[in-house]
UniProtKB/TrEMBL annotation:
<keyword id="KW-0963">Cytoplasm</keyword>
<keyword id="KW-0627">Porphyrin biosynthesis</keyword>
<dbReference type="InterPro" id="IPR015422">
    <property type="entry name" value="PyrdxlP-dep_Trfase_small"/>
</dbReference>
<dbReference type="InterPro" id="IPR004639">
    <property type="entry name" value="4pyrrol_synth_GluAld_NH2Trfase"/>
</dbReference>
<protein>
    <recommendedName>
        <fullName>Glutamate-1-semialdehyde 2,1-aminomutase</fullName>
        <ecNumber>5.4.3.8</ecNumber>
    </recommendedName>
</protein>
<dbReference type="Pfam" id="PF00202">
    <property type="entry name" value="Aminotran_3"/>
</dbReference>
<dbReference type="InterPro" id="IPR015421">
    <property type="entry name" value="PyrdxlP-dep_Trfase_major"/>
</dbReference>
<comment type="subunit">
    <text>Homodimer.</text>
</comment>
<dbReference type="InterPro" id="IPR005814">
    <property type="entry name" value="Aminotrans_3"/>
</dbReference>
<dbReference type="GO" id="GO:0042286">
    <property type="term" value="F:glutamate-1-semialdehyde 2,1-aminomutase activity"/>
</dbReference>
<comment type="pathway">
    <text>Porphyrin-containing compound metabolism; protoporphyrin-IX biosynthesis; 5-aminolevulinate from L-glutamyl-tRNA(Glu): step 2/2.</text>
</comment>
<dbReference type="InterPro" id="IPR049704">
    <property type="entry name" value="Aminotrans_3_PPA_site"/>
</dbReference>
<dbReference type="InterPro" id="IPR015424">
    <property type="entry name" value="PyrdxlP-dep_Trfase"/>
</dbReference>
<feature type="modified residue" description="N6-(pyridoxal phosphate)lysine">
    <location>
        <position position="265"/>
    </location>
</feature>
<keyword id="KW-0413">Isomerase</keyword>
<comment type="similarity">
    <text>Belongs to the class-III pyridoxal-phosphate-dependent aminotransferase family. HemL subfamily.</text>
</comment>
<keyword id="KW-0663">Pyridoxal phosphate</keyword>
């Protein structure tokens, strides 16, 4: 028995499924998750010391590579002054200024501790501001495990085949309307059926929780227009796209400014951090200024702020990082296309910049229904082959893989080589 197997058995006795977040349990691919002991640069090391080229990157935060020396140093220095005060601190002001400077839609921002918390609070802000209850989300988009948004959701719930979680009261989900990603008519219909009642429309501006599905040209602008026309707030959930597609997030990349946006992952540099922010008149309704209540004991935690500010500052001062990531991503995607062509496979390789996904389906993927046509069994075989050859991918067809700045072209070449050998020797898939 390996040490990971031993730990997994122990874990299953005390943690549901042996994990603290479902996708980690390898539920859809089977087998035993690798228990990771340490990480450095582009590698993670399991409990037996085996090294893997890591494409999970803590599901996004590790855009600079693991255990970056400057972030580690900032965390240690901040910790020397105390771990948490529960009072106002200078470092929170610095983070607020940095974010408001970089994110187009941010006049003001509130720090929280996770992406889920950020989204939950942004929905409350939108409802409080508009005085309306209904919200629109898209099938296959995941916005955290908040009751009102666990409706036809992506990520782990899609992987587990339970996109509507039990335990969500009907009352909580009844005001959540779902539209089809990339289908503006499905959105128009909801606005027509619910005139004057929709507080917010929330979207992953590039969807990365049903695999990676990009918005069609003009789709985000059409959403912007329909929201403005109806007095509905447009919320971009940038928990994945924020500081990954570029310094101004997806709103900068696609040139569409939402009313509110949520961030997480990268802004914490690996510490538990999220934030939501947007137009001043909305954010001025948040307590203590206004009547929309939202609070947090550890929000703006000084050690977490130190990690996040350091990561964001490095990204801001080194624009070449995004160029490098873009190059790696493009070279990966064109390499995969070539492999698929050579092996006569019609599978879909999607992505942008440092986000990618290989869908095991012949059907071009523009939405949730398309993504669901993927052969998850074939994906599981591919996943295990890659893992056995030292490549650590997200253990689900419906997740993205993430490139990081510590990666080099040789790493991409190696990944493509292993992938090529998988398609050469695994004739079943
Ligand atoms: N929104 C999006 C787009 C996400 O991808 C995630 C998590 N993957 C969340 C929200 C929830 O964030 P967290 O897991 O930090 O609660």
């Amino acid at each position: 028995m390996t040490r990971s197997e031993d730990l997994f058995n122990r874990a299953k006795r005390v943690l549901p499924g042996g994990v603290n977040s479902p996708v980690r349990a390898y539920q859809s691919v089977g087998g035993c998750p690798r228990f990771i002991k340490k990480a450095e640069g582009t590698y993670v090391y399991d409990e037996e010391g085996k090294r893997y080229l890591d494409y999970i990157g803590s599901w996004g935060p590790m855009i600079l590579g693991h255990n970056h020396s400057e972030i580690q140093k900032a965390v240690v220095e901040a910790a020397q002054n105390g771990l948490s005060f529960g009072t106002a601190t200078e470092i929170e002001v610095e983070m607020g200024e940095l974010l408001c400077n970089l994110v187009p839609c941010f006049d003001m921002v509130r720090m929280v501790n996770s992406g889920t918390e950020a989204v939950m609070s942004s929905i409350r802000a939108a409802r409080g501001f508009t005085g309306r209850d209904k919200i629109i989300k898209f099938e296959g988009c995941y916005h955290g495990h908040f009751d009102a948004l666990l409706v036809k959701a992506g990520s782990g719930v899609m992987t587990a085949g339970i996109p509507d979680s039990s335990g969500v009261p009907k009352g909580c989900a009844k005001d959540t309307l779902t539209a089809v990603y990339n289908d503006i008519n499905s959105v128009r219909k909801l606005f027509e059926e619910n005139p004057g009642q929709i507080a917010a429309l929330i979207i992953e501006p590039a969807a990365a929780n049903m695999g990676v599905v990009l918005p069609k040209e003009g789709f985000l602008q059409e959403l912007r227009d329909i929201c403005t026309k109806n007095g509905t707030l447009l919320i971009f959930d940038e928990v994945i796209t924020g500081f990954r597609l570029g310094l101004a997030g997806a709103q900068g990349t696609y040139g569409v400014t939402p009313d509110l946006a949520t961030f997480g992952k990268i802004i914490g540099g690996g510490m538990p951090v999220g934030c939501y922010g947007g137009r001043r008149e909305i954010m001025e309704m948040i307590a203590p200024l206004g009547s929309i209540y939202q609070a947090g004991t550890l929000s703006g935690n000084p050690v977490a702020m130190a990690a996040g500010i350091t990561e964001l500052t490095i990204l801001k001062e080194h624009p070449e990082i995004y160029r490098h990531l873009e190059k790696l991503g493009e070279s990966f995607r064109s390499g995969v296309k070539e492999i698929l062509r050579r092996h006569g496979k019609e599978y879909q390789i999607t992505g942008t910049g440092s986000l990618s996904c290989l869908f095991f389906t012949d059907r071009p993927v523009a939405n949730y229904e398309d993504a669901k046509t993927s052969d998850v069994q074939a994906f599981a075989e591919y996943f295990h082959y890659m893992l056995d050859h030292g490549i650590h991918l997200a253990p689900s067809q419906f997740e993205a893989i993430f490139f990081n700045n510590a990666m080099k072209q040789e790493d991409v070449d190696l990944t493509l080589e292993v992938m090529d050998s998988f398609f050469s020797f695994h004739r079943k898939v």
